[in-house]
C-alpha cells in the first residue's frame, strides 16, 4: 500500500496549512510519512461493483448531494440522460443549482437512503423562492427526538393543569431561525487615488476634485466603471477625456456623468488583479502618473511625481535602457500589454509613466543578474523586487522563508501569495505585475 502511495505521491494535494515552497511538498510528505504507522488495507471495505449500464430514466426521483453545500442532501429528479451522464435537478429550486454527473456517482442516492442512514433530508423548495434562500439549513429536520414537554408547552398555559397542556391547546410555535450557510459574497475592493499624481495631467484633471477616499465595489467590472466615473467627475474637460477614453479597446460599458449616459470600452476584468492593467491604460490615456491609482492607501509622496531628483533618475534609466523587443504588438493590445516605449503622441511631453515603470523593471532585472530570471537564486529575486519597488522590500523575509527562487517567482500568482504566503491583496498584485513584466521581457529576449 505504501509503495503504491509513493508511486502516486505527486497526485496528493498540499494541505491548506502548508506554507513552504510548493516544490518541496513531495519531500516534506516523504519525511512526514517515514516511520509512520499506516492503516492496513484489509480494514477498509472494498468498493462494490457498480452497474455497467446507465438505467436511469427522465423523471425518476432520487436523493442527491448539493455540490455547493455538500453537507446537504436534497430531493431531486432526473432531468435528462445522456450516455453515462444524468442531469440532477433539485425539486422546487431554480436550475442554477442543478448539475451533471455519472450514473454511478457517489453523490446520488435512492429514495429513502437518508431515512435509513439517519442523515438529515432537505425538503423541496418553493418555486417562488429566490436563489438567495437556497442554502438554508433547517435544524428542525436534524432533530430526530421529540421535544421535551417543558420546551413545547406555551408560556401562557403555565397556570393550567398538566393535562390541559395537551397538543389540542398547543399553538404552532414559530419556525426556528434558519442559519444561512450560503457562501459569503466577495469582500469589496477599494481603489485609492493620489491627488499629487494628477498634476501631470493638470490640463485635463483638477486635483482638488479627485476623491481621496477612493471608490469600492465587490465586482471588478462595476469597480472599473466607478473609477472612470470618478475620473470624469474630476476632469476639467469631460469631452476631451471621453474622446481619449474612446481609444481604449475592450468590452462596451455604460457610464453616467452629469445625468448623461455614455458608452465606452473597457478591458475585460474577471478578477481583482486585472485592475492593474486598467490602471496602466488609464494612466497612459490621460497622460498622468501610473501611481495615481492603487489598491492600497497611498503614501504621502509619489516617488515618480516628487520634484526631487528621483523622477529624473527614473526617466534617464528608461532612456538609457535598450528596448526589450523590436516587435510591436497589435494596436488593440498596445495600450494594455505594451513592453516597449510608446511611440504615439501623448498630451504631455517626455516619456510616459507606464514606460518608466516597465523600463525600470527591465533595468532592475539587468542590474540584478545577467542570468535568465528562471536561473536566479532567492537573494537575486529579492534584490530585483527591492530595486524595482523599494516598498516591497519589507516582504523579503517571506521570500526567504518560502525559498522563492527564480523558477518559483515566475510561477507566483495572487491567490498563491495571499493563501500560502499571507500577503495582502495590494502587495500581491504588485508582485504579479512584476512577474508579468518579467515574463514579457523573457519571451521578448
From TrEMBL:
SUPFAM superfamilies: SAM/Pointed domain, Tudor/PWWP/MBT. Residues 173-189 have a biased composition (Pro residues). It is found in: Nucleus. Residues 373-441 form the SAM domain. It holds the Pfam family MBT. One of its GO terms (cellular component) is nucleus. One of its GO terms (molecular function) is chromatin binding. PANTHER family: POLYCOMB GROUP PROTEIN, POLYCOMB PROTEIN SCM. Belongs to the SCM family. This is SAM domain-containing protein. It comes from Acanthoscelides obtectus (Bean weevil).
Amino acid at each position: 500500500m505504501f509503495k503504491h502511495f509513493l508511486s502516486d505521491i505527486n497526485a496528493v494535494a498540499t494541505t491548506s496549512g502548508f506554507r513552504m515552497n510548493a516544490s518541496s511538498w513531495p519531500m516534506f510528505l516523504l519525511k512526514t510519512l517515514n516511520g509512520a504507522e499506516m492503516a492496513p488495507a484489509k480494514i477498509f471495505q472494498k468498493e462494490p461493483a457498480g452497474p455497467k449500464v446507465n438505467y436511469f430514466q427522465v423523471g425518476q426521483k432520487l436523493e442527491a448531494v448539493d455540490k455547493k453545500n455538500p453537507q446537504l442532501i436534497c430531493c431531486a429528479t432526473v432531468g435528462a440522460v445522456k450516455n453515462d451522464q444524468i442531469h440532477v435537478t433539485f425539486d422546487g429550486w431554480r436550475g442554477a443549482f442543478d448539475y451533471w454527473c455519472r450514473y454511478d456517482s457517489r453523490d446520488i442516492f435512492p429514495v429513502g437512503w437518508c431515512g435509513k442512514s439517519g442523515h438529515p433530508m432537505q425538503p423541496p423548495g418553493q418555486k417562488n423562492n429566490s436563489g438567495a434562500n437556497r442554502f438554508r439549513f433547517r435544524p428542525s429536520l436534524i432533530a430526530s427526538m421529540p421535544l421535551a414537554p417543558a420546551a413545547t408547552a406555551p408560556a401562557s398555559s403555565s397556570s393550567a393543569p398538566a393535562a390541559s397542556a395537551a397538543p389540542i391547546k398547543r399553538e404552532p410555535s414559530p419556525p426556528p431561525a434558519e442559519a444561512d450557510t450560503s457562501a459569503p459574497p466577495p469582500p469589496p475592493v477599494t481603489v485609492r487615488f493620489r491627488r499629487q499624481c494628477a498634476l501631470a495631467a493638470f490640463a485635463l484633471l483638477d486635483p482638488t476634485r479627485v476623491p481621496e477616499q477612493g471608490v469600492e465595489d465587490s465586482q471588478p467590472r462595476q469597480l472599473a466603471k466607478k473609477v472612470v466615473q470618478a475620473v470624469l467627475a474630476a476632469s476639467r474637460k469631460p469631452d476631451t477625456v471621453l474622446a481619449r477614453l474612446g481609444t481604449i479597446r475592450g468590452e462596451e460599458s455604460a457610464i453616467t456623468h452629469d445625468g448623461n449616459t455614455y458608452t465606452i470600452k473597457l478591458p475585460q476584468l474577471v478578477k481583482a488583479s486585472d485592475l492593474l492593467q486598467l490602471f496602466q491604460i488609464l494612466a497612459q490615456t490621460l497622460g498622468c502618473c501610473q501611481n495615481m491609482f492603487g489598491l492600497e492607501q497611498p503614501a504621502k509622496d509619489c516617488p515618480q511625481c516628487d520634484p526631487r531628483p528621483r523622477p529624473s533618475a527614473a526617466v534617464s534609466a528608461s532612456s538609457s535602457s535598450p528596448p526589450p523587443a523590436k516587435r510591436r504588438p497589435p494596436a488593440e493590445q498596445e495600450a494594455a500589454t505594451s513592453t516597449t516605449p510608446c511611440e504615439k503622441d501623448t498630451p504631455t511631453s517626455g516619456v510616459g509613466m507606464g514606460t518608466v515603470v516597465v523600463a525600470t523593471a527591465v533595468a532592475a532585472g539587468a542590474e540584478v543578474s545577467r542570468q535568465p530570471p528562471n536561473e536566479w537564486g532567492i537573494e537575486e529575486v529579492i534584490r530585483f523586487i527591492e530595486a524595482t519597488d523599494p516598498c516591497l522590500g519589507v516582504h523579503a523575509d517571506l521570500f526567504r522563508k518560502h525559498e522563492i527562487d527564480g523558477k518559483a517567482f515566475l510561477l507566483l500568482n495572487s491567490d498563491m501569495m495571499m493563501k500560502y504566503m499571507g500577503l495582502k491583496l495590494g502587495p500581491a498584485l504588485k508582485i504579479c505585475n512584476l512577474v508579468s513584466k518579467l515574463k514579457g521581457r523573457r519571451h521578448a529576449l
